[in-house]
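Chapter summary example.
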Amino acid sequence: MKPFAEFPLERLRQVRFVLTDVDDTLTIGARLPAAAYAALERLGAAGLTVIPVTAAPAGWCDVMARMWPVAAVIGENGGLCFRYSPEHGAVRHYWTAPVECDRARQRRAALAAEILAAVPGSRLAPDQRYRETTLAFERECGDAEAILARLAGAGARTAVNSLWILGWFGDFDKLAMARRILREMFGLDIATAADAVLYVGDSPNDEPMFGYFANAVGVASVRRFLDRLAAPPRWVTRGGGGAGFVEVAEALLAARA
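The structure predicted for these 257 residues follows.
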């Protein structure tokens, strides 16, 4: 990883879309600092399209889409997307068709009960009730490797971030949904215009984005997970969490000025 301070100015000037993880990338711990929120607003005012891409549940994403200064919110690790407009409110777009969503929901419920019974100390994330496409377990409760093994053994895809162990049925992830949403909603094909996108993240579930985008930046706290990343980000900030995101935003704004 190279220091973000060395990121080429000409490449910053090409960026039109800022995609960012939320937990421990925009936040510091569980809190969203005022400076990070202000950075989102300033980026949007400067003409950049800002889209959080998070593992957070649908309930959180609804609030973000309605109240944050962002163009859309991709949630549940790519399972859904919210886009708000005053005319239509917060409209949801799912990766899979409604019938498939219903089947997957039943499979997730059965799998959750099985894992809770089989893995001592395992516990669902407190926000599980607000999820529509993913199953989330608290990362620090129970045997994480046993939980991951049982998820994978049931045919679920898995990911780990700074808060949760995630499992889901379907071929989505952060990159797959970002590709779809950027093309269908914003007219950008990342196969030919990836340099127009800058991604900021911090943990293993960001790896598909880190591996695809040359303009992938890890906030400093990503160093905690380097031993788990086959594809780390190309760049890393000095600050961790929201401070690192502000560092990226300041550079983008200065480049445009």
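To summarize the output: The chain has nine helices and twelve strands.
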